[in-house]
Queue: 2 jobs
Job 1
Amino acid sequence: MTVKELLRAGVVRKDLVVKGWIKTKRDSKTFSFAELNDGSSRENLQIIFDAKDGDFGAVLPRLVTGASVAVYGDLIESPAGAKQKMELRAKRVEICGDCDPEKFPIQKKQTSDEFLRTMAHLRPRTNKYGAMLRIRSELAFAVHKYFRDNGFFYVHTPIITASDCEGAGEMFTATSLDLSNLASLPRTDKGELDFSKELFGKKTYLTVSGQLEGEALALGLGKIYTFGPTFRAENSNTYRHCAEFWQIEPEMAFYELEDDMELAEDFVKSITRHVLENCRSDLDLFARFVDTELMATLKNVTEHKYERLAYTDAVKILEPENGRFETKVSWGVDLASEHERFLVENYFKKPTILYNKPKEVGAFYMKLNDDGKTVRGMDLLVPRIGELVGGSERENRLDVLEKKMADFKINPESYWWYLDLRRYGSAPHSGFGLGFERMMMLVTGISNIRDVTAFPRVPGCAEF
Ligand code: 4AD
Ligand code: MG
């Protein structure tokens, strides 16, 4: 049984075995005590070594921080007044893997986030990263539960794609060509690389978003969502950008922008509540040691109706504050993180959904409003992070979409199938993308995206 199961059951048991890693050990004259953790929860199991119960003389010196062991013994109630309820009286110990305490890199003295990033293979053994990874697992479960409970189908969109959904040109090329042997690369008459000789017969990339294929699936299944890795080759070294991140993208036929915003708000609240209800002990670690405001933030996220703010009204709020911003705001400017955070943290003091942005700063697929100037895009902004969700109602009118693609200099031929969706039984539809790592930052209070994923992919780091 795992430590979690044992402590939760809380009943006395004879002759069991528990396996895990030693956290600490201390010796008194008559006993030794060790704390054992097996990753199943934040709680350790206290183990008592009493010379009356067995001969531990040879093994005790090897029970050092980091060693892995199997302990055989009886689970008993701790004496009244002890900080834990149950403890294990050891009868026999097997060392599974020794750990040299002089060399083990994960020591109490060296636990800065920066240092632990260089030890990403060992940091799952620490309290903080163990808690983060357990919450991450539970949050992923909450995502699936939410959509399943609400009649959505889980679909899988391709990782390798020929289209740039966001049109931002931030794509990693996916190639089967051997780039280490330049002389071998196929060339056209003009000497350029000949992608028709590629495995797929064309140039391909790692996807930045599953949205375009998600739209095709929603226009057959009604309500779908994706939950998978997406990739951005942007060289932004910030606390909230990764080159590889997980995105959740629901897409719904017959939903308009209003319905989309409603869903995004309900979804964020629901998965936050799920974590609050199911990850108490791990959350407590973050509330105590990482962000003392965490519980207040989560209350703010789950308990208020989110502010809805049209872009034009946001500009009216922001313009008089231009003195405090690096990028000055005027109508037409793409709002940056500093502006988003001002609206959420200083002005409304709660999550805010910003909608109807100028068509030039929205993506090509966003539905044009009747004013001809703005599009039905929306961003859900939260404290500390800024943009958590980006979404829109999609342009479902063939002629308007073709015109917009021309404005964005997108070649309609490569999007023939996307345009087909507007040719045959086109329907209003909407969707959004939520960055899973940013959601993790929100629920844990962890301030750097490098610390909410086990093995972050950020500029300069593809170790592990
Ligand atoms: O706003 P974005 O670029 O929107 C899309 O990709 C749409 N196709 C989504 C859709 O409508 N189906 O990205 C969506 C979200 C952002 O709000 C942010 O939370 C996250 O993905 N995100 C990133 N997270 C980490 N690192 C990055 N580099 C990110 N870029 C976007
Ligand atoms: Mg966005």
Note: The first helix runs from residue 3 to 9.
Job 2
Amino acid sequence: MAEVLPQVKKFLADGPLPFYIGGEFIPAVAGGAFETRDPGSGEVLARVAAGEAADIDAAVGAAQQAFDQSGWANLPANDRAVILHRLADKVDEQAEVLAQIESLDVGKPLGQAKGFDVPSLSQALRYFADLAVQTRLREPIALRGLEAYTYRSPYGVCGFIVPWNFPLLLLGWNIAPALAAGNTVLVKPAEDTPLSTLYFCRLAEMAGVPAGVINVVTGFGATAGAALASHPGLARVAFTGSPEVGRAVAVAAAKNLIPCKLELGGKGAAIVFDDVDIAQTAEKLAQAVTLNCGQVCCTATRWIIHQRIYPQFVDAVKAKLQAVRLGYGLDSATDMGPVVSEKQRRRVLGYLEKGQAQGATAVLQGGAEASLPGYFVKPALLAGSPDNICAREEIFGPVAFLMKFSTPEQAIELVHRSRYGLANSVWSADVPRARKMAEALVAGNSWINAHNVFAYGLPYGGANLSGFGGGVNSPETLRDYLRPQSIVRPYD
Ligand code: NAD
């Protein structure tokens, strides 16, 4: 078991942890605070300032002032890149501290936090900083009689509302392109996992990010989140989370007539043909559904298996899932931690009950892990009708729903039963066939012989119920944060 670092202990004890507004660490205007819990024990981890409309207002004001006066918006991209690389360096230097905070707050295994979540943040900062340096802000347009070009400049204050499953990674995916383009940002982290984002603010200060360029207000969705989404001072808003809240954020953005990026939930399918290596594919899909305790928007939660290999595949994957070691995030023997909260545990257990009440068979029962304190849930496999609630709705836990297919057309039809369109995968030794299938699936991402593939430069986004607005992580994402303007001079 890793010892909690003294810096982490001190950080957690210093509550209520304040907001970061205009380069200062300040408490809530109304003095409110809330508790965040360690999902591995159920104990209170820290107290955090609870933001309301007045705090959001102050933070938008600080971000606007920084946009107008700090020089950030007009810095040459090179100079901004230097600061963003310095910030990425700080993230890397403090990887152990950040990883511990993330593991304690989300419940995820420390190795995953250190090997994936934290570096994803620093890589996002570096990728977009470098991309901005290479981006032409003035692009000539060849037209008869007109001297014309497109000029691109940052928008202003960009608001970000983030969920609890990958706080640091999603912080990077969201704010890095906006900052690299010269905007200023205000982030509202999820109330269940605000801690690593607050610690990140200290690193921003140490890296010399000008005051007011990065602002963070913690708090609940209905108060701080809603106030941010509807604030008239925002130039853009981006939301990552559930479709229900995404719809409310889109409505608020529409009322202010500002662009809105939505990265929403998913119900990812994996189509497994009968020519795969069964043991290998079973292992990879077992990893996909237990990654972050299944709390991954794009992961494979509907497994559509060719009927010829169905029995062998089920045996292989059951054995893998039964071998998964549940445990505390800081314990190096842990493969899978708890879900994030008691509320989330009730949600997952509720789906298991409802699914079986609607006729699904439990191929692997799963359910609550009573031998551990905290919010642990064992991996489960259900099988049955594509109309079952567990085949249709996002559960967000370590649960996969199994279905059989015999023809490619049938597999595609099963995938499209879901209104989500985030990510699917096709597993086959016949790569041309897999490619054809991958192209036929309507979603932001189709992976072949893999699931959950992320890289900076590789566009990632959703279709249908999984969101709109351009996605993240691609060169186009940087463009999304630059406002295009035509500059034109007619000549004879
Ligand atoms: P959620 O929608 O409940 O909350 C997300 C954020 O919105 C939180 O910060 C919350 O405080 C805030 N919020 C809640 N109500 C609000 C309101 N009325 N106005 C403004 N903000 C409000 O989602 P969650 O439970 O935190 O996260 C799980 C969901 O996120 C899943 O659906 C998952 O698939 C999705 N997700 C999507 C992606 C992606 O990239 N597409 C990534 C991670 C998670």
Note: The mean pLDDT is 98.
